[in-house]
Amino acid sequence: MWYLARDGLDRLIRLLAEQGYEVVGPTVRDGAIVLDRIDGLADLPAGVREEQGPATYELHRTDDDRLFDWAHGPDSAKRFLFPPRELLSTISRNGGGMHHEPDPEDDRPVAFVGLRSCDLHAVEVQDRVFLELDPTYRRRRERALFVGVNCAVPGSTCFCASMGTGPRCTIGFDLALTELDDGFLVEGGSPRGEELLSTLPVREATDDESAQADRIAALAVERMGRTLDTSDMPDLLYRNRTHPRWRDVAERCLACANCTNACPTCFCHDVVDGVSLSGDLASRTREWASCFSAEYSWAAGEVVRESRASRYRQWLTHKFASWIDQYGTSGCVGCGRCITWCPVGIDVTEEIVAIRATDGAVEVVTS
Amino acid sequence: MSVTEVRDVRATQPEGGPMRIAAIQRVVPETPESATYWMTWRDGDGEGYAFEAGQFNMLYLFGVGEVAISISSDPMHPHRLGHTVRHVGRVTNAFKLLQPGDEIGIRGPFGRPWPLHEAEGGDLLVIAGGVGVCPVRPAIESAMRHRDKYRRLILLLGARTPDLLPYKDQLDEWVALMERLGVELHLTVDEAVGPWLYDVGVVTTLFPKARIEPGRTTAFMCGPEIMMRFAGRGLLEMGVPPERVWLSMERHMQCGIQLCGHCQLGPLFVCSDGPVFRYDVIAPFMEVRDL
Hints:
The complex is a heterodimer of chains A (367) and B (291). By secondary structure, chain A is α+β, with helices and mostly antiparallel strands. Chain A folds into two domains: 2-84 and 108-223, no CATH class; 235-268 and 291-357, no CATH class. Chain A has helices spanning 6-18, 78-81, 117-130, 135-143, 160-163, 191-199, 207-223, 235-238, 245-252, 258-262, 308-327, 337-340, 348-357, and strands spanning 2-5, 22-29, 32-37, 48-53, 56-61, 85-94, 97-102, 110-115, 145-149, 175-179, 183-188, 202-204, 269-275, 281-288, 298-299, 302-303. In chain A, strands 3-2-8-9-10-11-1-12 form an eight-stranded mixed β-sheet, sandwiched between helices. A four-stranded antiparallel β-sheet of chain A has the order 7-6-14-13, with no helix packed on it. In chain A, helix 9 packs across helix 11 (308-327). The longest helix of chain A is centred in the C-terminal third of the chain and has 20 residues, at 308-327. The model of chain A has no long low-confidence stretch (mean pLDDT 95). Chain B folds into two domains: 3-110, Translation factors (Elongation Factor Tu (Ef-tu), domain 3); 116-248, Nucleotide-binding domain of ferredoxin-NADP reductase (FNR) module (Rossmann fold, 3-Layer(aba) Sandwich). Chain B has a seven-stranded mixed β-sheet, with helices on both faces. Chain B has a six-stranded antiparallel β-sheet with strand order 4-3-6-1-2-5. In chain B, strands 13-14 form a two-stranded antiparallel ribbon. Chain B is globular, with a radius of gyration of 18 Å. Chain B has helices at residues 3-12, 90-94, 116-119, 133-145, 168-181, 207-210, 225-238, 270-273, 279-286; strands at 20-31, 34-41, 56-61, 65-70, 80-86, 103-110, 123-129, 153-159, 183-189, 199-200, 217-222, 245-248, 264-265, 268-269, 276-278. Chain B has 291 residues and is α/β, with parallel strands linked by helices. The interface between A and B is large, with 54 and 43 residues.
């Protein structure tokens, strides 16, 4: 464990930029802490606190200069490693002949600064979807660098401790920071991270400083806003496919797709076709899709999931149950974004509690 | 190319592999709402292309989009592909504009094929409804080619009305060939409109007539889900073991490589865990409404 003075983080951000990285970190924009390009320590949300709950999110200013005493906003690494919209290929048609050209990719590698443990885990979850099958994702992922931050102040909708994905960074980081009053504790998580450490003005942390990191993590678990009992997954949701709660939640759900967009692991997408006005150049663009839309399940001229209840069931069951069968891990990292950013405040932890409480209940169809 | 090899290819290439280009040779109207598009590869584009009965391709129309279509032609001739397209959506309706000579993009083949080897030594029973015969036709062609590998070959084909039965232009040819090869063909329609020499009734009503021997039978089914549910139950009631019944499912498949998420059915990805599934694997999911 190492100690890095506060301005050492500024040095790290600039060092990464010098090494050719696009440095992406938390910064305040449009009333939220979002992930965007940062050039130095001054871009980080110093003295900002956030308050969030079901369907609410608000920032406050304080007079201290703490950099990371807030829980994540709507953005995660997903927006960068699997962008909401990206050109896959172009097809040209000259003199009748069709020519397909995959999009040449030359974007800069991204260095993420300030990702929380839940989001580092979310990257690992998306890796299981994309890494083997999608060379574009793999290229971005393998070149990316991760500086994690151990959570000190989790949000009221957080439940990473229940999902085993936080609050302390355990995987997926090159460096992990714990914010202290006047600086940071730093640990390396990869050879690349160790290499960076050797170029930073660090000193060995004292025993007292190291103990502080443990206390901060323990306190974060205590402060966590929510918990979730994940026992008996995936079977709990598999055997409750006709539970009346699906109809109940469907009456509140707007099928707006905010949850799937804010979720750091949701990976479903459409490939959308375009064509130039001249008619000789067509494009294939990948866009995030949501299982809450009707066209999502459109097959052979019919919508398979016509009811909102069936779409919510698909999302929740996929996230907490079938994901385990498909990828060997839950699709949920307990970040709570789907709760905060749901416009009507539907809370996945409450929905699962409700199903568990009346396990085996079957909806009586009266029609 | 085996399915495993297909999977190795997709790991290294965007969108699961290159888009190869083929040209439309011939368009054969099949039913009022479907047609078969016969195509050949543009010079060099078909190199290394092979498929197994039951697999599908992603067909791309310039500027319009892609659609997953089962290959309905003979796997022995991977350079002359037939795809029967039902005009039900945006992309499939645009197929109506295709003329011989027009180019089309093809990615594939994708998905798990019919397990023809499972039926070897016993009876192969094929049950198809409407355009459901299209994905199973390559299996029928393969089985007829290797007729001696199977004891009985029984085909039960049904449709709502006679005009909704595809491949009518080939039916006489098939019937002659099948008689020669000792293939038992039974045809039925839900409702006989116009001259119709065969049976009337849903496809399961053909079961007694077909004298199915449950202990020797391997069944391949393809058609509307409701038909497959009833036919599947019927076969099980007769004593055909569930692990000897196979069917081909249809779901929204946009990528073909288990990436886009659309085709999920419970924990299964229809594009890569299927589209051909063993009955005991898929049946629990077919019983849940809107899953």
